[in-house]
Amino acid sequence: MTVLPRGLGRSYGDSALNGGGAVILTERLGRILDLDTDHNSVTCEGGTSLARLLSFLVPRGFFLPVVPGTRFVTVGGALAADVHGKNHHVDGTIGRHVEELTLLTSSGEVLRCSPAENAEAFDATIGGMGLTGVILSARLGILPVETPLVRVVKRRARNLDELLACLEEEERLSRYSVAWIDGLARGPSLGRGVLIRGDHVPLAEMPRGQSPRGALSEGIGPAIPVDAPPFVLGPLSISAFNALYYAAGRDGTSLSGFGSFFFPLDAVGAWNRLYGRRGFVQYQALLPREAAAEGCRRLLEEISRERAASFLAVLKTTGPAGRGLLSFPRPGVTLGLDIPNIGERLRPLARRLDEVLLRLGGRLYLAKDALTDAATFAAMYPRLAEFRAARNRLDPRGRFSSAQARRLGLVEAP
Ligand SMILES: Cc1cc2nc3c(=O)[nH]c(=O)nc-3n(C[C@H](O)[C@H](O)[C@H](O)COP(=O)(O)OP(=O)(O)OC[C@H]3O[C@@H](n4cnc5c(N)ncnc54)[C@H](O)[C@@H]3O)c2cc1C
Description:
By secondary structure, the chain is an alpha+beta fold. The chain has twelve helices and 17 strands. Helices cover 26% and strands 23% of the residues. The relative contact order is 0.16. Flavin-adenine dinucleotide is lined by residues 4-11, 15-16, 26, 46, 68-70, 73-74, 76-78, 80-81, 83-85, 129-130, 134-135, 265, 367, 402.
């Protein structure tokens, strides 16, 4: 029987599923083992959530070097996907900040891996989607911060070219940057949006009367009580939301708690239920910079043609690739789109989006993928053969597997 480690199940597709096999729940592997303030590092077990780590670290004056758009993921899940944040162009993926990890392999051995020790296993595990073994613990480099606040600068752009130019121009002004796109705007306004960039606030800029170590109480907002009926997210309501968001995104500077800046969706409990019973898929594409304008335009046009209104469309820039053999980011621009499940039209739409990516030298993100096929994936990831060879050496009997790994040929079918 095959097995698969699972974190908090926050990957969008089938990467944490293993139909016909077993799943190892890691949530109770959640202890913080050591904080080394002399060397700015933290050691914790693989099932520790980023939420728990941040509530431990921020009051002590530290932040994680890379965080994804939700804190409800585990360290193991974050390393297995080699997650990126709004600072990829500055800090790379989380994998760059892993000093050492311990891996439980299929033979029952616990392997210490780092860029210097068992480096092949390390490179296959960072971004390896749980297919090399269970990440039992990791030591991560951490970032000293003086306050829990972020200075946020917003700038509106009237169309895609303006938004991409804004991102290119302003990414070097801040550690973090991201742009929200109105996925429904068409014609000359296609790709209009708001660039949002941010930096940790130093103590000297802390507003008077606020405690520098406070501001940790940002909780989870009210949950969406039932699956929202389809009309709630019909093109009209999404269009109204997007128009309002665009109008509110006036140019300016403000201070924000770290939670609302880094994890805006965490404030809406069970936000995914907004898409109703039929749900949605995420499509996160990465395009080389020279193809970003054409690629984003084509993807947005295809989706808009199908009237698959995208509620959330997010654009980020990416810098140099990391070490992970299957890591997603490399230099370019990434566009993440929520696509509501439009039934039988969804797969043909995804095929067309994949074709755009393939033609322009782009790729998809495993942690978000639900629909692509093995040939497309292989064409996007030139180091796949290296990954499979490393994995076969670590797990010769093919004990670790997932639904996604079988669909995409990351592992041999049993
Ligand atoms: C709202 C939202 C925003 C997001 N934003 C971003 C973003 O900005 N950037 C980004 O990169 N990603 C982003 N993601 C994706 C998310 O960070 C990844 O899917 C992450 O892997 C989820 O972690 P998890 O603990 O829930 O893992 P799961 O979803 O449970 O598992 C994901 C993969 O990790 C493996 N895995 C889990 N635990 C272990 C372990 N201990 N050892 C070995 N393998 C393990 C699993 O086998 C599986 O293949 C976002 C997801 C959501 C829901």
